[in-house]
Amino acid sequence: MASRKTAFVWHRIGLLLLTLCCAALTVSAINPYAAEGPLIIAHRGASGYAPENTMAAFELAERLGADFIELDVRMSKDGELVVIHDKSVDRTTNKTGFVHDYTLRELQKMDAGSYFHADYAEETIVSLEEVMDRFYGRIGLLIEIKDPPLYPGIEKKLAAVVLRYKLLQAITGIGRSGSFQGIEGIEGRADIFIQSFDFKSTRRIHALLPDIPVAVLIHADRHLLDYLI
Length: 229
Known about the structure:
The chain is an alpha/beta fold. The protein folds into 2 domains: 1-30; 38-228, TIM Barrel (Alpha-Beta Barrel), CATH 3.20.20.190. It contains 7 helices and 9 strands; from the N terminus they run αβαββαβαβαβββαβα. Strand 1 (41-43), helix 2 (55-63) and strand 2 form a beta-alpha-beta unit. The chain is globular, with a radius of gyration of 23 Å.
C-alpha cells in the first residue's frame, strides 16, 4: 500500500515537472526576440571614445563588436530626419539654436566633433539616411524618437525610411550574409528597434510598422507606475 502511494506521488511530481518543462519550452519558442546571451548596444555609438551620434562613434562601435548602435532622431526645419540627442545644437556643435530652426544642409555644415576632441573636428551632424546607407544590414539599429510633439509627422517620416530599406533588403539581400546575425524574430531577424519616452508616438509608429519591435521608455520623474499598470 505504501509503495503504491509513493509511486502515485512520484507520478504526480513527474507530470508536474513535465508540464513545467513544456511551459518553459513554449515560452522560449514563442519569444520573438530571444538572443543568445546579452546584447551589446552602443549608446549614441561608442560615445565614450568618440563624439556621440556621429559616424566616427558608429564606426568605432561596429569595430568594437557591438550588436546594435543606439541613435537619436529629430527633424530639421525642412523635414529631414537628423541624428542628434539634444533639442538644441548648443552642447555638441559650434553653433547655437534649436535643431528644428536649421535645414539639413545647415546642420551638416556644423562642427559636431571638436567639443569632444580636436581630432574630430571634421565630424558633422548626419541624417538618418546617411546612417542607414552605411550601417543597415551590418549592425543592429536602435532608433529613439526624441520629443515627437516638437516634430509633427516624424513617425511617418521614420516609417517611410525604414520601409524603404526593408524593401531594399528584400530585393538585394543586403544584410542576409556576413557576420551580422540580428535577433531572431517572427519573420526573420530583428535588425531595427524603435523606442521613445512618448507613449502616443510609440503607438503611432507601431501602427505604421507593426512588424518592427517598439519599446516604451519610462522615467520615474515623468511616468507614474500606476498609470502604466
